[in-house]
Amino acid sequence: LANCPTIAYSGEIDVQKQAADVMVQAFEEMGLEHPRDLMTRAPRNPANQRGRELVHIIGPQTAHRIHPDSKSRMESMLQHLARTKTPETPQAVSFVTSTLRYDRMNWIRIIALDEQWSKGYVYARLVPPNTIYVLPNGVSDFELNFGPGELPEWFLETPNITWEPVRRLSGTGGTVPVRDDLFDEPPIRSDRSWSVRLYADWREIQTEEGPLKIAEWKTGTPPWENELRKRHGLSGPIDDAFMDSFLFVTPSGKCRHAAVEEWTRSEFEHAVTHWRQQMRGDARVKADADITEEDIANHNLILWGDPSGNSVMERVMLDLPIRWTDSEVIVGERRFDAAHHAPILIFPNPLNRRKYVVLNSSFTYREYDYLNNARQTPKLPDWAIVDLRLPSDSRWPGKIVDADFFDEKWELQAPHFERVSAKQ
Questions:
Q1: How far apart are the C-alpha atoms of 233 and 241, rounded to whole Å?
Q2: What DSSP state is assigned to residue 375?
Q3: 107 & 188 share domain
């Protein structure tokens, strides 16, 4: 919303006005923390904050509808905005995201965050005659991309990327300025398109206080480009698998343990029924024995059952960070009895790293959240361990005894310790 005119509306007595009030507060706080303020070294004066104010029109004594007077006022504002010419290429872009599912804003694309679900942003502005000021924070890989005809005409030569914190000192919050000519910016193309990719190359240096990690920014493709990492379309959490084509894969055999068999069958039936009720479509279902290479190439695979009964799950299980044997579910150094525990997780499909596999889960919000669409958000992270001795209900698939996100390399995080290979 920082990149376009924004008008909000609420009825004064609307029971959902609380959600709008939260947005008002977030908008104001965003203004106080705007990256443009960080481009200067002036200390912040709490008594003179340069925040933002959200235009929030309130319909007097109105519930969940638009008051006629408010409607007229908003239409007048929108007509005025429609007459205002907006530059085809924004001169300044401020992009904040916490997930790579939403990775683009105008000519900025964030390719990697320092940590999913922690705020990352890139602020950039175009300055004549040929400078682009950039300020990243919480990101480790991003791109500036202008399509044909989008780079302003006053750029007569290769843009010069300039920023202050070219290096970041981990753990100190400090920066080490580096000359701009360390960047190797590509030339402008003849169709007035231009793009450059910048990534943080972390290395360790020795200081008087001991070893310290430092990130030096470079242009081009990072050497780890083809390694397993979180990226757009492959960043989790579990619900992200249902943002693209998916296929429910049912087992041809039975689970090793009766409780797991009963639970996985019940959760599968729940998933099929509630996908139809909530998404107004029929989930595609296919048996494990019928899965083809084309299915693996084109769909996220939602696997039901356990490795004993589902042959596709058996194929991928050895390459997942969480082990599921006949007797145990193993998460790092934690062990759970497989007789009455089951894992739910999302992970890049070992058979096709461009797609997901998911174990025993559909979207993770349940009946309790159907009342209000503000509740219909992911309720579980990348993985969870379910104790089946507590029955599923309108909020949870059972008792969640452990859950977390994988890190940016799709590995277990502390306190779950290092990734454990099932091949060991």
A1: 8
A2: G
A3: yes
Note whether 120 and 114 are within 8 A (CB). Answer: yes
- CB of 133 within 8 A of CB of 127? yes
125-166 pLDDT, tens digit per residue, is 999 999 999 998 899 999 999 999 999 999 989 999 987 544
Q: Which residue has the tokens 């069958």?
A: 265
**40 and 115 housed in the same domain:** no
CA distance 14 to 17: 5
Q: How many CB atoms lie within 10 A of CB 414?
A: 9
Asked whether 330 and 341 are in contact (CB, 8 A), the reply is: no
DSSP state of 36: H
Q: pTM of this prediction?
A: 0.86
Pinpoint the alpha helices (H) of 230-363.
258-279, 293-298, 311-317
Tell me the pLDDT of the chain averaged across its residues: 88
Cα separation of 328 and 387, whole Å?
A: 12
CA nearest 389: which of 268, 273, 258, 270?
258
Q: Indicate if 192 and 268 belong to the same structural domain.
A: no
Q: How long is the chain?
A: 424
Do 13 and 68 have their domain in common? Answer: yes
CA dist 137 and 104 (Å) reads 15
Assess whether 99 and 145 both reside in one domain: yes
- Helical ranges in 84-194 per DSSP H: none
Determine the residue type at 4: C
Three-class DSSP category at 243? helix
Give the single-character DSSP code of 304.
Answer: -
User: Is residue 128 classed as helix, strand or coil in its secondary structure?
Assistant: coil
User: Do 354 and 386 have their domain in common?
Assistant: yes
Using one digit for the tens of pLDDT, what is the confidence trace for 254-280?
999 999 999 999 999 999 999 999 999
Number of domains in the chain: 3
The one-character DSSP state at 209 is T
Residue 38 and residue 17 share a domain: yes
Q: Which of 47-56, 130-139, 308-317, 368-377 has the lowest mean pLDDT?
A: 47-56
Mapped onto helix, strand or coil, the DSSP state of residue 72 is helix
